[in-house]
Amino acid sequence: MDSDIVEQVIEAARRVVAGGAISANGHGNVSIRPPDSDEMYFTGGPSLRDHPAEAVVRVGLDGALREGQLPPIQAAVVAMHTAMYADQSVVGCVIHTHSPFATAYAVAHRPIGCWVEALAMFGLPGGVPIADYGPRGSEQAIANIRAAVLPGVPAVLLANHGVLVFHRTPDLAITVGGVVEEAAQAGIAAIGLGGPVPIPDDLKAAARQRAMSFLQRGVASV
Ligand SMILES: [Zn+2]
Questions:
Q1: Cβ count near 88 (within 10 Å)
Q2: Which helix (H) or strand (E) holds 7?
Q3: Of 45, 133, 147, 173, which has the highest C-beta tally within 10 A?
Q4: Nearest 5°: CA angle at 165, between 1 and 199?
């Protein structure tokens, strides 16, 4: 077990909890794929809150446990993570939570529209799609996720379950998880005001381009 990667997993779990895009009981899992490897480091604990380093496990992308002890509840969702790595070689981190507002959309079988700018900036100009229900981590659930996710889309709602986010780095995955939860919260709040209004299609691209141009400029200083 590479202690640096274990530490990255623990730090990512801590940041997911600190960011608040998680349900009260902390249910969820975080995994990280070390660069150029055929395995992932995965949170084997029941909650991301105060997740102990000793409960991180090492799992091959074929699903075989390589190191550590994996409880049955967590073992059942391993395939949900490994499938995301198998499908996209650029993915380095997968996060699954039951963050409350996004899960409300998942329970209502409603996708989240692109009604907050951050979704357009972070690769979700079409909003957050929803994968049909299948028992957690099952072949059916994974087939449904694959059917719902277009190339480049970094997040999907899991009907009657929660949210799955996958991105190049833990930083980006954590950010997208927070953005998805924020958009869901804003959407639900806006229902009382006549409903959320999506950003016009031509301006979604403009929002992303503007964000990218500032990123390219880097940190401004005097
Ligand atoms: Zn779950």
A1: 16
A2: helix 3-19
A3: 173
A4: 155
- Are 146 and 164 contacting, i.e. CB atoms less than 8 angstroms apart? no
Phi and psi dihedrals of 67, rounded to 5? Answer: -160, 140
Separation of CA 147 and ligand 1 centre (Å): 19
Q: What is the pLDDT of residues 28-59, one digit of tens each?
A: 999 999 999 999 999 999 999 999 999 999 99
Residue 65's H or E segment, with its range, is strand 65-67
Which tokens belong to 200? 């016009």
**Amino acid at the residue 132:** D
Give the position of tokens 């590479």: 2
d(CA 84, CA 181): 20
H or E stretch covering 82: helix 78-87
CA of 104 to the centre of ligand 1 (A): 13
CB contact at 8 A, 112 and 102: yes
Q: Each residue of 128-140: pLDDT tens digit?
A: 999 999 999 899 9
Domains in the chain, CATH or no CATH each: 3-217 (3.40.225.10)
- Identify whether the C-beta of residue 60 lies closer than 8 Å to the C-beta of residue 34: no
Selection from 188, 187, 164, 186 nearest residue 176 by Cα: 164
Neighbours of 38 (CB within 10 A): 13
Distance, CA 193 to ligand 1 centroid (Å)?
A: 31
